[in-house]
Specification:
The protein is built from 17 helices and 27 strands. It is of the alpha+beta class. It folds into three domains: 187 residues, Histidine kinase-like ATPase, C-terminal domain (Heat Shock Protein 90, 2-Layer Sandwich), CATH 3.30.565; 109 residues, 2-Layer Sandwich (Ribosomal Protein S5, domain 2), CATH 3.30.230.10; 273 residues, formyl-coa transferase, domain 3. The strands form seven sheets. Strands 1, 2, 3, 4, 5, 6, 7, 8 and 9 form a nine-stranded mixed beta sheet that branches. Strands 10-11-14-12-13 form a five-stranded mixed beta sheet. A four-stranded antiparallel beta sheet has the order 21-22-23-27. Strand 10 and strand 11 form a beta hairpin. Helix 1 crosses helix 4. The radius of gyration is 30 Å and the shape is elongated. The protein starts with 8 loop residues before the first helix and ends with a helix. 39% of the residues are buried.
């Protein structure tokens, strides 16, 4: 029988550390919160190897008295709470007294501090929870904390740390949030001077007195700041101020919505829903606006003690918050629309698109003359800079057909559909089309190809099918070498968010295999020097921004295989014909005949069906002919 016994203190500390210290970014967050609670006016952060080897935070705050250094590294010791009632009126970022003790139990920690009213401070070293005697320290007023060899005594935890670039991206995003939080009192005046270095290189810097818009421009690029809309709303218990992006800027997730309450970053589904509802009708379904919103609340109206990492809060009256945010967002969008001036073009300047704009490299399809037993068609690379991507058969006796790939402005978000099982017949039910027969084809709604077959009426989604075909071509090509690329005469300049730049540059080799040649251009700017040839004349900037979105859409960085799949899907989607493109009869014939080049032609890479079959029997039943 198992015997119940008390755990040793060091095991208890390591378990507690596991709840609080998820990764290096968690440590950075806890240390910065302590610095802000100490009313620091300058905070310097240095990391090495994504926090694996070193995390250092230095501030000029209140400091810790020498006789209290040992207590500061003890669990459940804090200067921020005095009684249980204080839990319901928390005004500080930290309050549990667990962070330093937990960090010290899984690292080698050096704590140095000097209060402003003392001539000399003290330092103490803690190794895996083992405290060494304190000794005098002749440093500047404030606190300096150095953490080395994180999880050195818990190898299982250390094994699960991500590679340095991934951890660095998380740390940079955390620091970005903390810097943005320091605008709680005044959006035109940053309360703190910030400096952040990675491996000795300056990553972020924010001067005391800088405005929120200036910081957004530095962190996320100048393009965003030109499309920010100021919002403000007041209630007796809550005040809201900040910016939302105009509908011109949208993202694939709500991760670009930065919410702060009483100086604390948090996430909240109620508020995200209110923002989304406010943009309803102004933004494509499934896309998300950006936001930088600051909430000032009565301390008793919000509970910040509901989440281990304090990433979520609970409002006493969430309905009021939802109402305030929704109305503030809706009103600013309505005001923007009222003030907009529309310049109607002269009719002679308006180009009516009667047929698809052929702006991409030509696809040469080699159809074997031995049509009864065609060999598989394979993708071959063509000449640079705008290569054709021919499908070739091994048979020398061939006839040529050209299929031009139309341009596409971007990804069209797929709405949610519910399909009946019978709408997605298993392989073999939808007929393979004989290349020799003169099939009848018709385009409807400039989106679907309708084909008469012996089994019934086949309806093809032209974008979904072409996307699948292009995806298979790219995937096939990737197995034998890089995706064909074309060089840009003038490289495209792209500004990234600070937490994105290093992660993107760390995947240069993978991006090169996918047709994107990039290099750093200083700060958070990168240059795109080549892009997949399949895109033809389209700007690579739109697609590359989607690549960045995909890379950071989730908290976890995708694996190499998942990354390749996502980017190939995006490239195929951008390069395929779109709903609304007019195809001529030859193009419709060719697209229909290419269906069976892929074993997965029943669905596009994103999972939407490419075709459905209405059987002849079903038609006759509907018209009472059976």
């Amino acid at each position: 029988m198992a015997i119940i016994k008390l755990l040793p203190p060091e095991v208890i500390s390591q378990i507690a550390a596991g709840e609080i210290i998820e990764r290096p970014a968690s440590i950075v967050k806890e240390l910065i919160e302590n610095s802000l609670d100490a009313h620091s006016k300058r905070i310097d952060i240095d990391i090495e190897q994504g926090g694996h080897d070193l995390i250092r935070v230095v501030d000029d705050g209140f400091g810790i008295y020498p006789e209290q250094l040992q207590l500061a590294l003890t669990s459940h010791a804090t200067s921020k709470l005095k009684s249980s009632e204080d839990l319901f009126r928390i005004s500080t970022l930290g309050f549990r007294g667990e962070a330093l003790g937990s960090i010290a139990s899984v690292s080698k920690l050096l704590l140095q501090s000097c209060p402003p009213d003392l001539d000399q401070g003290a330092e103490i070293f803690c190794e895996g929870g083992l405290l060494h005697p304190s000794k005098p320290w002749n440093g500047s007023p404030g606190t300096r904390i150095e953490i080395k060899h994180l999880f050195y005594n818990t190898p299982v935890r250390r094994k699960f740390l991500k590679a340095p670039p991934a951890e660095t991206a998380q740390i940079t995003e955390t620091i970005t949030k903390m810097i943005l939080s320091s605008f709680k009192n005044n959006l035109d005046n940053c309360d703190v001077h910030w400096s952040y270095k990675n491996n000795g290189k300056q990553v972020l810097q924010a001067s005391q007195g800088a405005s929120l818009k200036e910081m957004i421009s530095i962190f996320f690029g100048k393009d965003i700041t030109n499309d920010l809309l100021y919002i403000e709303s007041n209630h007796r218990d809550f005040k809201i101020k900040g910016f939302v992006g105009s509908p011109n800027i949208d993202k694939s997730s709500a991760k670009s919505q930065y919410l702060f309450i009483n100086g604390r970053w948090f996430r909240d589904r109620t508020i995200s829903h209110a923002i989304q509802e406010g943009f309803r009708g102004h933004m494509m379904t499934g896309r998300f606006p950006i936001a930088f919103l600051y909430f000032d609340s009565d301390l008793e109206k919000v509970d910040v003690n509901i989440h281990p990492t304090k990433a979520e809060v609970r409002f006493r009256d969430p309905g009021v918050i939802h109402h305030l945010v929704f109305n503030a967002v809706r009103n600013v969008l309505l005001d923007k629309n009222k003030s907009a001036v529309f310049n109607l073009q002269d009719e002679s300047q308006v180009t009516r698109k009667n047929q698809i704009d052929i702006g991409l490299p030509e696809f040469t399809i080699t159809i074997p003359s031995n049509r009864n037993n065609p060999e598989p068609w394979t993708l071959e690379s063509g000449p640079s800079p705008a290569p054709s991507l021919p499908f070739n058969d091994k048979n020398n006796s061939t006839e040529q057909m050209a299929f031009e790939n139309p341009s596409a402005a971007g990804i069209t978000k797929t709405p949610n559909y519910t399909y009946l099982d019978k709408s997605l017949p298993p392989p073999g039910i939808i007929p393979a089309l004989n290349l020799e027969e003169n099939i009848k084809v018709l385009q409807v709604y400039n989106a679907y190809i309708v084909i008469e077959t012996e089994e019934g009426v086949l309806i093809i989604d032209q974008h979904a099918l072409h996307e699948r075909i292009l995806y298979e071509q790219l995937k096939s090509k990737l197995t034998s070498g890089p995706v064909p690329a074309q060089k840009l005469l003038i490289p495209e300049t792209i500004e990234l968010a600070a937490f994105q730049a290093e992660m993107v540059l760390s995947r240069q080799e993978e991006l090169l295999q996918l047709g994107f040649e990039i290099r750093g251009f200083g700060g958070n700017t990168i240059l795109v020097e080549s892009f997949p040839a399949l895109l033809g004349r389209k700007s690579p900037k739109t697609l590359f921004n989607k690549v960045i979105e995909q890379l950071f859409a989730k908290d976890e960085i995708p694996s190499k295989d998942a990354f390749f799949h996502h980017i190939l899907s995006l490239t195929a989607c951008h390069s395929a014909v779109r709903s609304g493109d007019i195809l001529n009869e030859t193009e419709m014939h060719l697209l229909a005949k290419m269906r069976h080049l892929s074993k997965s032609h029943y669905h596009c890479p994103h999972g939407r069906p490419t075709s459905l079959l209405i059987s002849k029997n079903d038609l006759e039943n509907q018209f009472g002919r059976t």
